[in-house]
Specification:
690 residues; mainly beta; 3-stranded antiparallel β-sheet; 35 strands; 52% strand
Length: 690
């Protein structure tokens, strides 16, 4: 890792110096559209105090805002809608406080579950933060560390821009390290190219729990008035050792009762030579051709300002993924001469007798053609309209049993969707976004999604209060792996019905009290999940999930107290278990020292009430419902100091500090999976630009 750090640092600094004299004129900001994607439905212009109310640690939820009258910084950053090719402006990562939460798994949600080391599978315990199950659902488990075309950031820079993030924790024998590097530069006012890497090397505090991530990507864009093109390519590998969880929780809860000194690697675990391996490749291309006219009234000096009226968009996305589950934990002879059973003892069924070697490959090739009518090209055009048709071909390959031998089962499927987006993103009093799609040909015929969001706002004494409503109706076909899956320990072929989901919710932001209130309720029928026997199942009856949330920030001088409180209830905890109350509380002092150094010093904690938290099954790389052990009623607290000096941010953190005084120690994130014990963590972020 030290060698990789040195190479990337040398590369970024050297390239920045080479291009240090570059000066690029950015395209006019009004050329950048603000049409939303399926996650951020309504882009909105948020002042800095409003943006602070968003989840600072949520890496996937970027808040877009209008570009009208926007003063451009040294770089403009945006996400790209994967279907319409629209650009959605997002703020630069210049967070001055709570930086420490962006660098640990706990920071991805008010309440989350993971295995302990950074880079391990993660599940949000807030139900409405979970995405729909993907076609290759192993990839879903690493959501905080994955990147898709919809999440990729594209840049337009006045000068070359580089960014390095580094974090470290633990000693040499169990060190966790993560290094992220970004370099991007414009070669002229039309072309930008960038490189990005994300490297994780976590040896694991507990036995046989290390993991390594290596992610490399290249991206670029070409922008003119009439032509907009984007490219993104990524290759990523994950090697994750599995220990199945600790077998004796007394080592965590009451270590003094063991009567001897031990380290975390001495705690017995289920597996010692088992691992999951994953590889992912993405190649994404997007091209948009704008039709329009030149308006002399807007720019008489340059022959008229180009006003886009309509656009033709084509996007193409190839995904290739494979997953392999391996184990060498076979029956062996112990030190006492007795036979020690291997991994097979933990599974009641076996569908072949060889050593565990389960593999599955997946590929997808998706093409979308869209036509768009732009909002506002004339004063009487009050909304934008986009229609599209999308074709996707998917291929699966997994093990199969034929006459007692292991063979491969291959499957190909295709689907065609048609859809449309109707939106109004200009104006202060009313904005809306309605979108719908329907499967018309192929395996997904009959699947549909109707989703909408509306926002209104009003000013009180110069401060803007906003009210947003969100609703959807979905009819979702079960995907191929939910219906068919073959491996050594799990083997199923099901004919599941469609899952139907109906959701209604809203959010209210009150600037006077710095308060955000949100609530939502969803009804689910034919919900698919993994039951307590770790088998996939479908619940035919209705299940309702209700959520209410308050985000409240208090400030008195340099004293600050931020709180996020989420209340959840499920009508059937056996099918959708959720904690009743989840809290993230952060109390800190924040001050500017000698006009250069910003200091934040405080203590924060994640806490949720006890409930039957999902368990983790390594052979499936999935979370499942269980009713044997409750998790919760224990704070995962940190004492930290954040500092920012010009273009450098760094933090020092004492993680899981409550375990020093809070007994019995119940710092389990999931059943049998404790988080890391109290330890020192360090983080650094440096922006390099001229």
């Amino acid at each position: 890792m030290k060698e990789k750090l040195f190479i990337l640092l040398f590369f970024c600094v050297g390239t920045t110096l080479v291009f240090s004299q570059a000066r690029v004129i950015l395209p006019d900001s009004t050329q950048i559209t603000t049409n939303p994607d399926s996650v951020d439905l309504l882009p909105r212009q948020l002042p800095q105090r409003d943006r602070a109310l968003e989840h600072d640690h949520d890496h996937d939820h970027k808040v877009p805002f209008d570009t009208v009258n926007l003063v451009l910084p040294a770089a403009t950053v945006w996400n790209l809608h994967p279907r319409s090719g629209d650009r959605i402006i997002v703020p630069m990562d210049t967070l001055k406080h709570n930086f420490q939460q962006t660098m640990i798994p706990d920071g991805y949600s008010v309440a989350g579950g993971y295995l302990a080391p950074i880079g391990s599978p993660f599940i949000s315990k807030i139900f409405f933060e979970r995405d729909e199950v993907g076609h290759f659902w192993f990839y879903d488990m690493y959501k905080p560390y994955n990147k898709t075309p919809a999440q990729q950031l594209f840049y337009n820079t006045r000068v070359p821009y580089a960014k390095l993030d580094y974090q470290s924790a633990g000693g040499n024998q169990a060190r966790e390290q993560r290094l992220k590097a970004l370099l991007t530069a414009n070669f002229n006012k039309h072309i930008n190219v960038g490189l990005e890497s994300d490297l994780i090397d976590a040896k694991g505090i507990y036995k046989s729990q290390g993991n390594k991530h290596n992610s490399w990507s290249i991206f670029g864009n070409y922008l003119t008035d009439k032509l907009e093109a984007h490219i993104f390519a990524l290759t990523s590998t994950i090697r994750h050792f599995e220990n199945g969880g600790v077998t004796d929780e007394t080592f965590i809860r009451d270590p003094e009762s063991k009567g001897r000194n031990f380290t975390t690697v001495d705690i017995p675990v289920k597996f010692t030579n088992t691992w999951n391996k994953m590889k992912t490749n993405h190649v994404f291309l997007s091209g948009k051709y704008n039709l329009g006219f030149h308006d002399q009234k807007r720019d008489s000096l340059q022959g008229g300002k180009f006003v886009p009226v309509a656009s033709v968009i084509f996007t193409s996305h190839y995904t290739g993924q494979d997953r392999r589950f391996l184990s060498h934990d076979t029956i062996r002879t112990g030190n006492d001469g007795k036979k020690v059973p291997g991994i097979d003892q933990f599974y009641p069924k076996m569908f072949y007798n060889k050593a565990v070697d389960d593999s599955l490959t997946f590929s997808s090739f998706k093409n979308t053609l869209a036509l768009s009518l732009r909002e506002g090209f004339k004063p009487w055009v009050k909304f934008g309209l986009t229609g599209y048709i999308e074709h996707e071909v998917r291929n699966f390959s997994m093990i199969d049993s034929l006459n007692g031998t292991i063979d491969r089962k291959k499957h190909r499927e295709s689907s065609i969707f048609i859809g449309g987006i109707l939106n109004k993103q200009q104006g202060e009093h009313l904005r809306f976004n309605l979108q719908a799609n329907l499967g018309v040909v192929g395996v997904d015929i009959g699947e549909f999604n109707l989703e909408g969001e509306v926002e209104t706002g009003f000013n009180i004494a110069g401060k803007r209060t906003t009210l947003t409503g969100h609703a959807y109706v979905k009819n979702i076909k079960p995907n191929y792996l939910q219906k068919h899956y073959h491996s050594k320990y799990f083997w199923w072929n099901h004919d599941f019905g469609n899952t139907r989901r109906v959701f209604v919710g809203g959010k209210l932001y009150i600037p006077f009290t710095n308060t955000t209130l949100s609530a939502g309720v969803e009804n689910l029928q034919n919900y698919i999940y993994f039951d307590k026997d770790r088998n996939i199942a479908q619940h035919a009856s209705n299940v309702q999930v209700l959520m209410a949330r308050i985000d409240q920030k208090l400030r008195l001088g340099i004293f600050n107290w931020d709180n996020q409180v989420v209340y959840q209830t499920s009508s059937n905890q056996d099918v959708i278990p959720v904690p009743m109350v989840s809290v993230y509380s952060n109390m800190y002092l924040k001050a500017l020292i000698v006009n250069e150094l910003t200091l934040q010093f405080g203590v924060d904690a994640h806490y949720h009430t006890g409930y039957f938290s999902p368990g983790y099954e390594p052979a499936l790389l999935q979370f499942y419902n269980q009713d044997e052990k409750k998790i919760g009623n224990y704070p995962i607290a940190t004492v930290y100091a954040n500092m920012q000096l010009k273009q450098t941010r760094f933090f020092v953190m004492l993680y899981n500090a409550a375990s020093a005084v809070w007994k019995p120690r119940e710092y389990f994130s999931l059943p049998s999976y404790p988080v890391n014990p109290m330890m020192l963590k360090l983080g650094l972020s440096v922006d390099l630009h001229n």
